Amino acid sequence: MASRPKTTALPDLPQGWTAVIASVDEALTELMEVGFVPGAHIRPTHGGVGGDPRVYEVEGTLVALRRAAARHVYVTLSDEGVD
Amino acid sequence: MSCAESIAGPVDASPPVFARHLATVALVGPPNSGKTTLFNRLTGLRQKVANYPGVTVERHLGRVKAAGAEAITLLDLPGVYSLTPRSEDARVAVDVLHARMPGTPRPDGVMLVLDATNLGRQLALAAQVVALGLPTLVILNMADALHSQGGHVDPLALARELGAPVVLASASKGAGLAAIFEFLTSPPNAPAAASLPVLQDVPACQAWARRVSRCGGYRRPLPSQWTRRLDGLCLHRIWGPVIFLLTVLVVFQSIFLVGQPLSDMLQQVLEKLGALAGSQLPGGALKSVLIDGAWNGTAAVLVFLPQIMFLFLVIGILEDSGYLARAAVIADRTMAKVGLNGKAFIPLLSAYACAVPAIMATRTIENKRDRLATILIAPFMTCSARLPVYTMIIAAFVPNRPIAGLLFGSRAAAMLGLYVLGFLVAVITARALKSSILKSADSHFILELPPYRWPTPVSLGLRVLDRAKVFAFRAGTVILLVSLALAILTRVPLHRGGLVGVQDGVVEAAGHVIEPVISPLGLDWRIGVGLVTSVAARETIIGTLGTLNGIDANSRGLELQQALRRELSPASAVALLILIALAMQCASTVAIVHRETNSWRWPALQFVYMGVVAYAAAYLGHFLAAHLLG
User: Is A25 on the interface with B (CB under 8 A)?
Assistant: First the structure.
């Protein structure tokens, strides 16, 4: 059952959920170069104590990000939800 | 958008027009693509490392070691995600590729190394490389891992899209080398891609990369089960930090348990060599200058070589295995508190062995300001050169009393106190720097975590050798010159005729000159001379004090301790310890900071800052100790 897409900032994406990147701040090109581009699938895999920095799996690549950078990424929860 | 038609024929058929030889071939690729492993595989020991002019990026040049291709020079460019000149690394790569780098020949061919297990977004770099219009070979490295993990790619279809030949290879296993040698000896024409995106438009490039990857029949391999399982542990909320601390402990301990004995062995060899050379020289001034001065001074620094090589071996294993990136993630939260980034932690850990390799290891920190801050605080960490000095002074002044039973004595506590002192000053300095001159607004911590891999011995060996060379030649030559200068100065007589010992030389005069400065600390001209000579290297203060008191410091350490007790009050011993802990008394560090920052401004600032901090702290320490110890 497809529900209405819900867009949220990346730090708010719960652990283990899969989402699709909706937008990335244009200024953060270095983030795009490691695969954070609109349309890419993303899933938070590990968060340390306090959840900062957090490790994300983006299209098969593991990338660690501080919350400060992750705030500039918006994601749409995909229908797959929890995996 | 559709894929390129197959009637264009396999690109392999685009024949070399005539057997032109390539002269210079650049290796381009993102970090972690195995580019350097391939470079090592192709060149072996036939490589040279130098800095590009005007920047701190290293230039790796090598000759191909294969029959028929010996004349070809390979250039291992810094790992870059794109040719957009944002970082210093990328700027160097772009400048080299466009023949704008003075002293570096323009490459007439490019080998683009991509990680086959992670092709998708890396293809965006292919668009920029293909657009250069140079004969290009696209190497899909780690093809063995791609296939063993259920991935797939059609090199021919990919080659049609890119308009350049594509080979599957495994640099670590040596697969696919034949096709690489063929490219080198009979290069194809410049590539003609089916279509190219607007290169400045990052999302467009990514979209293009996705299309090319789809047309190339690319299927991403399943994530490695090993990586998944190991990350479950190494990035675990509780186990992660535990493993991290254990790793740090093992690295730290092994430097002393394995590295120290090796250094001691080398010291004996160097002493024997010095004695041997000394016996061949006629006695007198020349021998005194060359052997007792220059050789002993240089040897005092060279003995750290085994420890440094061992340290780089351990760091190399951590880095190549993929753990270092995880460690940086774990350390980041703590490092962020002092305004630094997780990647600074390995250099700072290395600095406990020696600041020189630590400063060389800061290259992994991309953010320039973070890197500078790390370089500036690294010498505050208690390096192994301080240990002999600490040991001697503590043994002379601190009675050995147990504090916590058999585990911990008063001497160990004093030693620990000095470690903590250096660490605290480093932390305070880092905070001060990061909130003032090295403030960076966008210090984003973005770190790709490569899959875990077995480090290859060849790459490890070459890296250790490479770092050892840098240390021995760069630091070694400076030390040799400084030791020689000191040796001559300490032996040049000022008033009495003839060549004499330290007591009557220019350096004694220097000792008297700085005496007014250090007398508030309760230190006399003798210690002044020791401090002046130890500007080259801290541990030389022991030898100098020995010479001044007419005692051989190596064989009769106890007598030297007694002499020290006569010369120094306990409060001034505290001041001396603080000076050794905080002042920049290491010519090798100054030399390496100059090399890594490519300026004299930073090493000068660092030298003055550390000197001022050391003096102020020593003054305070002397004052407090004089009142507390009576």
Answer: no
